[in-house]
Amino acid sequence: MAHTGAKPLWGGRFSASPEGELELFGASLPFDQRLWKEDIRGSKAHAQMLGAQGIISEQDVTDILRGLDEIYAQIEAGEIVFDASEDEDIHMAVERRLTELIGEAGGRLHTGRSRNDQVALDFRMACRSFAEELQHAITELQSVLLRRAEEEFGTVMPGYTHLQLAQPILLSQHLLTYFWQLSRDFERSAAAYTAADACPLGSAALAGTTYPLDRNMTAEALGFSSVMPNSLDAVSDRDFACDLVYACMMCQLHLSRICEELVIWSSTEFGFIEMDDSHATGSSIMPQKKNPDFAELVRGKTGRVVGDLVSLATTIKGIPLAYDKDLQEDKEPVFDAIDTLIGSLHAVRGMIDTMAIRHERLEEASRKGYMAATDLADYLVGQGMPFREAHGVVGRIVADCVSEGIELQDLSLDELRSYSAQFDEGALDALDIAKIVERRVSYGGTGNEAVRVQLTEAKQQLTQQLGRME
Ligand code: ARG
């Protein structure tokens, strides 16, 4: 006897449904409807396999595929409004509509399948797409960075440690640092793709199934490289989601650091760059303001991506094998991390692409702050003085310059010689900022030649990444 008020999809042993608020509390439809394409694609592959294995009839397969295609078209056209008080999740929403459309055959689709392997499948497919999307967005930002690094080849700027003036460097060297950070993010995204790229479908609820499924067939149809070898693992594993969110978090951290510098550089005090009007905002009260809002926002959004990783890991940490409803909490952190990061990558790419470099400010700043001190000490070492002693001599020179408010370049050779007789003509060369940069010839260093090599390597890296995404 049919029970009134029980859920149609699992209502057999129930005499009542969860009351209204609880029903909404338990639903994932508001966020997992985003998986609708994956869900339909997975169901089509499953139905075709059921048909090929003789588990359901060819007529059923035809009806199911037609019905699923129709639902696909309806969702795409915005004709279906999902409602969590009607369906708990996207899997049930699609299946219910299918049965409404094609009748009994719709009820055969779920043969040998559980929502547990179904959701793992959908989520893995989505994570693979996210990982690809990420690789594209990362590469686009890298190509802008590389272009600007090439354009700015030869531009000298101050290099910092502790945000104190340290040694002059090439702006290209600084921009390429971001490039290499992002190439590691690209690798992490690629690894997250691989982690998701194993098919859980056919594991059913937890233990596999009595039907003679062909798991290789569905895996292949859905473009998976392998089939997960353990049904319990297949329905309970979310490592792939953690890998993806970790990749997102690291990339977002990099963007945050970049944006921190863009904020500092665009201040009046630094004035190294000016944000393009298209990537800055004004103030409603202070007419003079031009604020690097978008850079700040990327930095600010980093907190939520770090939070996404913590949230996901914490959800997973205590759950016994195999599927537990806790796992429904896995999706929002992934969606949030991906959406936040993709938006941030886009914003940073635009800012870097359009910002104006204020060369006169960089040049002025590079001459200040005694950044030639190391080279002056190295010069004395070249004259035979032990480095420790040279460090002391130059330290005293700097101290005197500081108290007189002058730069090292303001000193004459005679004045230098009053600190050490070992200074001669060459000492003035040691103080030349452009030459200081040029002398950094070591591989990976900021010398013009070393950076030229690096630009070539970055170009090769970019080409390699583009090739891998084809
Ligand atoms: N909405 C669920 C989720 O996202 C689908 C799986 C439900 N399985 C179950 N046995 N309740 O995880």
List keywords for this structure.
470 residues; mainly alpha; Fumarase C, Chain B, domain 1; Fumarase C, Chain A, domain 2; Ribonucleotide Reductase Protein R1, domain 1; 3 domains; two-stranded antiparallel sheet; two-stranded parallel sheet; 6 strands; elongated; binds arginine
Map the helices and strands:
Elements: H1 20-26, H2 29-32, H3 36-52, H4 58-76, H5 90-102, H6 115-151, E1 156-161, E2 164-170, H7 171-196, E3 198-199, H8 215-221, E4 226-227, H9 231-236, H10 239-265, E5 273-274, H11 293-317, H12 331-354, E6 356-357, H13 359-367, H14 373-382, H15 387-404, H16 413-417, H17 426-430, H18 433-438, H19 448-469
Parallel strand pairs: 3-4
Antiparallel strand pairs: 1-2, 5-6
Helix pairs in contact: 3-4, 3-6, 3-8, 4-5, 6-7, 6-10, 6-12, 6-19, 7-10, 7-19, 10-11, 10-12, 11-12, 14-15
Bound molecules: arginine.
Residues 28, 32, 89, 115-116, 119, 323, 325, 327-328 line the site of arginine.
